[in-house]
Amino acid sequence: MGLGVKILSFTLGTFFVLTGLLKVSPVFHKQTYREMRTELKDFVKVFPLHPSLDWKPSVSNYIRFVSVVEIITGSLLLLPYIPAVLKNLSNLVLLLLVSFYGWTRFSLGQDLHQSTPNLIFGMFLICRLILIQIEKTLGNKRRDIDRRKKAN
Predict the structure, then answer these.
(1) pTM of the full predicted structure?
(2) Distance CA 73, CA 12 (A)
(3) What H or E segment, with its residue span, contains residue 109?
């Protein structure tokens, strides 16, 4: 993994672990804890599976689930010795979660400025996947060049 991917993985992992912890526990910052819980209560109102399954999760279960997903996937991005496949899977799960947040804000009729963090971190997650693909492509080209040199 290149330096850019490592930096993005560390930054994204740290961000999602901290936001997950902030949603679960008021230990770090009580004001932010209350604001995030209030925000997620609104998210449950427009839960996407409600119309089709006639089911909504309880607010506390929803908050726990989202927090645990953020903490686990953020930790997988953050830790250095995790296999690339798990990191990429975590990246995709977080990208889905961020997309869901954006869709939920849109469904609630909130302004675009409230979705700015989702857009920014969604772009960072996409950039991480693009950088990984670029590194793979460059690595394959280097191997092809080395093989040609050895063949000659």
Answers:
(1) 0.84
(2) 10
(3) none
